[in-house]
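Appendix B. Raw example, untouched.
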Amino acid sequence: MRLVWYEWKKLWKNASVLKIFLFFLLLSGIVFWGELDKNREWIPEYLNMHGLLEEEQGDAAEWVEQKKASQSAAGYEQWKALEQIGREVEAQNGYAAYRESIQNRYEKGREISIFADPDSDRNAYGKRIAQAYEKLDIQAPMELHPYLGVEQLLDFYAGDLLAAVFLIYLTGVVFLQEEKAGKSEFALTMFHGNVRLFLAKAFVVYSSLTVYMLLIFVLNFMLASAKFGGIACMAAIQGVPGYYAVPYAWTIGQYLLACMGLKLLAAAVLTALAVAIAKRFCSVILTAAETACILGLGIWFCNSSVGGGLWEAGRIWNVWSLLRGKPVIGTYELISFGSLYFEAAWGIVPLAAILFGLMLFAGGRRQMKRRRRIWAKKGSRRKPHSIFYFEMKKLWIYQRGMILFAACILLYGMTVRQYRHDLDTEEYYYQQYIDRFGDRVTKQTDHQIREEKAYFQSLEETLAGEENIYRADALQKELERRDGFEKYADRAALLRRDGKEEILLKDMQYEMLFGFTEVSRGMVLFLCISFAFLIPAVFQKEKETRVELLQKTSACGGKTLWNAKIMSLLLYFVSLTLVFGVFSFWKSAAAYDLKMSAPADCLPAYWNSGISIPLACFFSLGVILQCIGVSACLIVLSACGKFVKNQYMLTGMILGATVVPTLLSPYLSLQWLRAIHDILFVFTFQGRWTTIGFAVLLAAAAAVIGKETICREKNMEK
């Protein structure tokens, strides 16, 4: 305990740790408030309708139906509020029918021949699920409350990702700083300097992360309560929409505590992995890549439904499932290994065993020493390599750039693979009209448009005089296509009016290539995270070990060394940018029939841009411009890396100046937050003066800094 107390005080006496802690806490609160405020148009109406419903104290389902009937011509706010309240009412009234459907499914399944045998595996599987829900005795009341705050609190995942980033920072401060300063070698000579000291440091990292996650949970709970009123913690969790399948008689408060307990267990496993890698390899990049890969694999398994047995266990028994909570305790799932069945909650046991094994493995291990082998034969001399060769070797191998590169590509590939764009009614029917009438505007198209207009006009006249409810409903559904048709007709007219090539494009199919989406934000985030981890490592390692003074006394220690460092970083980041572009294009081209020969100004985003080159050339040119933007950012940040003394402070500065604005840009309406995104993803560049000014300043700074740095190195050489 003395070691723990000493390490705890040493950590929190560091002012930088406290600043980063408060910064991440504030950032998580801002992002969650942005999630809560995303539906601000209809939330006041939603809360007002809940108040009216409580005052009238009537049948909730009947009240909702009456409101829908009386407000059929109401605005978007009333419609969205009634839709959400309808989901909550359905959760209250439909739970008994849900449990009954499980029993009926089991009973009907027994009538099938393959399920008739009571000892068969299939029958045993269904029987256990049916019995579990039959024995479930819910004592808590199923009350109707504004549950939107609870839903968003349980679905908020950005806080878990921020906690993983904070874990990497804590591991670097507690373990890697002392390793690089040589203090850990001295500590190993002490009586308790190996296993006990390691366990004390690991406990300090985990306890600090626990405090952070608990404060995030309390902060988000308070924000949700402030936005939607007090959360009904004593109501049954099954009354919340989407949580029918919870197999435990828990209240909302108990379910939240259980989710928090699972998060802390997941944090323990991640901490064990991070500290084991940090002690074994002494690399912040490898620690970050390992954490990212574990979370990425967990997300991939959670979204995969292929296979049973080990595949099914991997889908539920992983760190991401524990962080989210719902896959483990939100349903009664059985994992089958032959004739053996295990509940989803039993995944805690193997994960706890992995945690114990990692701590046991890492506690007695010292830092791995690199073995240097001489492959040259006796009497022969190896050909000397250039400075660029050694900088490349240091970046890709010793600084674990290869692992970070592979992790970024893996996570970006998963982001691209999982991306789905939602089509509204207008866009859906607009694409159908393109398939039906063709994407080229001709004289035949004009004739088809006139016929369709006459058809819709006759439908409106028929609907006005129709008294049969069912026929009127069918006519109303047929008229839903009108918005898509009007978009098709208006787009065709605009193409002719502006003298553009008369080709109609399905806008949403090009969104991943040119739009402000989670794919583009993911690309920018991975580039910025690579900036934060690689640039300080390349420029700070020699400075901290005082090797930089020795390098500058050599013949090629000035301009040549600077150029070698810059070129090695440029090769990494330009390659990463090109791979990102290839992934996006390959996914879009595989999913849709893209018209890449069409002019770029046929897309609405570039309608008034005057860019008439084909989309294929436009996309290729945009990727090249992205590489130029990445290079400019790289030169500016590299110059900062030469003058900043603390590597971790520079990492924090880069993350704060690039990653944080990109994370906040979808949630806040401030235009300057998208400046970094628009520089590194030029297709969303809309000509805003803030972004233009930032780009000009960045290019000028890159040119001046590069020139000044080279001149300074030349003078030092002289």
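End of appendix B.
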